[in-house]
């Protein structure tokens, strides 16, 4: 719909209908010192042509991965997105004015959610998935609530190698629910099972990341075993795009798998919106946040889909709700499903293998000391001769974003740069990165 501003005559008719003589009288109950008593300080109105030109100039200030070579990762990754994913997701049956927070309004939408849940369960090796989460950080908070309900404990143990944004959300969320957060420091880039064992007593859950924030591969099976032996719920924060080459969380004993769905089918989109995923062992099904779609048959034996569980406070009494966080991103999760279906098991494996091969090639080509000389997947950290923030600034001036400065989140790592490789990068791109790092004295 086109937008047309109100005219003075429109305002007069509205005031008359309300029964007041002026806008000032309409707001008479607001104290005078809280009201703006001057015109808004905004530029004069533009014509439509001038406005379109101005918006184009503003948009041109944004830099995207199509115009600048990027090796950024840290939770958001530039994977190739096929045209079919966006094409199908934008069909009128799926795209409405209420997206991406989509209601379960038709059998088609319910079936799409059911198939999304199936894909997440197959990838994570777990029994049940909810209909999606808000993003990869809030699903961690939700997992903590699931664990608290399952164990009746209040301590959350989180590895320091978990994404700092995930840890920040958990720390913010926990006090409101009477929970304590304990962080386990890393040892040479990974979480030590022995250090975890000292912290896990009386814990509701243990959250670790595989691969972790530094790109290093954690001793995931050992960490899950330590958590499970202590009676805590083991929670793995994983990247779906690595599960073609890494073992599924359910296979090494985790009870819950969570993560950010953006790498699997969604664009970077300047940081969002995206979708989170949460899968769990069957014993936790009634504690999961949000909604779960199930398959059934009608009275005539025809296959149908229904909302089997709805556990948000919008649906049931607040005291019985499992989450008060927005727990559905159907359109974005559907796009992820389309992408994963397009990719298939072999394609997922090939993407994972390409990321591994490119990252190993980049380690050799950059020829800089590894911050953590351990096996990695998709990204790795190197030490530079200059502060990483300064290197990023100087490299950006040359059209290359070389990676993520770990000093932003970890003390003592001001000279450490984390470099991410996806299948979209090439050997020539890595050569360019190496050349730019040499040019800026990194």
Structure, briefly:
The chain is α/β, with parallel strands linked by helices.
Question: How would you characterize the overall build of this protein?
Answer:
The protein has 442 residues and is α/β, with parallel strands linked by helices. 35% of the residues lie in helices and 15% in strands. It has 12 helices and 14 strands. The strands form 4 sheets. Strands 2-8-7-6-5-3-4 form a 7-stranded mixed sheet, with helices on both faces. Strand 5, helix 9 and strand 6 form a beta-alpha-beta unit. Helix 4 runs antiparallel to helix 10 and helix 5 packs parallel to helix 10. The longest helix has 37 residues. The N and C termini lie far apart (53 Å).
Going across the major beta sheet, what is the strand order? 2-8-7-6-5-3-4
Helix share, percent:
25-40%
Content-based structural category: alpha/beta
Strand coverage percent: 15-25%
Count the helices. How many?
12
Order of helices and strands: HHHEHHEHEHEHEHEEEEEHEHEEEH
E-strand count: 14
Distance between the termini: 53 Å
Radius of gyration: 25 Å
Give a topology summary:
Blueprint: H1 8-18, H2 23-26, H3 48-60, E1 69-70, H4 83-89, H5 107-124, E2 128-129, H6 138-151, E3 155-159, H7 164-173, E4 180-184, H8 193-199, E5 203-210, H9 220-229, E6 233-238, E7 256-260, E8 276-280, E9 291-297, E10 303-310, H10 330-366, E11 379-383, H11 388-396, E12 400-401, E13 404-405, E14 416-420, H12 427-439
Helix pairs in contact: 4-10, 5-10, 6-7, 10-12
Name the descriptors.
single chain, 442 residues, alpha/beta, seven-stranded mixed sheet, three-stranded antiparallel sheet, 12 helices, 35% helix
């Amino acid at each position: 719909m086109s937008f047309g501003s109100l005219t003075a005559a429109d305002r007069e008719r509205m005031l008359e209908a309300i029964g007041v003589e002026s806008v000032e009288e309409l707001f008479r109950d607001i104290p005078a010192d809280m009201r703006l008593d001057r015109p808004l300080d905004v530029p004069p109105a533009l014509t439509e042509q001038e406005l379109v030109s101005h918006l184009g100039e503003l948009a041109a200030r944004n830099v995207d991965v199509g115009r600048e070579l990027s090796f950024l990762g840290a939770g958001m990754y530039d994977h190739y997105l096929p045209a079919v994913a966006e094409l199908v997701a934008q069909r009128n049956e799926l795209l409405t004015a209420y997206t991406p927070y989509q209601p379960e309004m038709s059998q088609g939408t319910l079936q799409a959610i059911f198939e999304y849940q199936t894909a997440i369960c197959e990838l994570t090796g777990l029994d049940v998935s909810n209909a999606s989460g808000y993003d990869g950080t809030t699903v961690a908070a939700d997992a903590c609530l699931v664990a608290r309900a399952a164990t009746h404990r209040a301590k959350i143990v989180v590895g320091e190698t978990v994404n700092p944004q995930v840890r920040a959300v958990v720390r913010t969320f926990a006090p409101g629910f009477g929970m304590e957060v304990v962080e386990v420091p890393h040892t040479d880039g990974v979480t030590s099972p022995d250090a975890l064992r000292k912290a896990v007593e009386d814990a509701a859950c243990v959250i670790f990341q595989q691969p972790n924030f530094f790109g290093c591969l954690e001793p995931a099976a050992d960490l899950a075993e330590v958590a499970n032996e202590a009676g805590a719920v083991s929670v793995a924060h994983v990247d779906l795009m690595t599960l073609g080459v890494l073992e599924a969380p359910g296979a090494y004993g985790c009870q819950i798998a969570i993560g950010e769905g953006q790498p699997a089918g969604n664009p970077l989109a300047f940081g969002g919106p995206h979708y989170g995923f949460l899968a769990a062992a069957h014993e936790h099904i009634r504690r999961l946040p949000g909604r779960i779609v199930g398959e059934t048959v009608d009275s005539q034996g025809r296959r149908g889909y229904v909302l089997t569980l709805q556990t948000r406070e919008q649906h049931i009494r607040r005291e019985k709700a499992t989450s008060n966080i927005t727990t559905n991103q159907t359109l974005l999760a559907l796009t992820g499903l389309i992408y994963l279906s397009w990719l298939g098991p072999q394609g997922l494996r090939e993407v994972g293998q390409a990321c591994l091969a490119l990252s190993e090639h980049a380690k050799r080509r950059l020829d800089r000391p590894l911050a953590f000389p351990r096996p990695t997947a998709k990204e790795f950290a190197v030490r530079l001769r200059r502060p990483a923030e300064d290197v990023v600034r100087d490299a950006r001036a040359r059209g290359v974003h070389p990676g993520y400065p770990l000093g932003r989140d970890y003390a003592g790592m001001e000279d450490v740069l984390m470099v991410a490789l996806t299948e979209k990068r090439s050997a020539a791109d890595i050569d360019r990165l190496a050349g730019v790092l040499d040019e800026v004295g990194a």
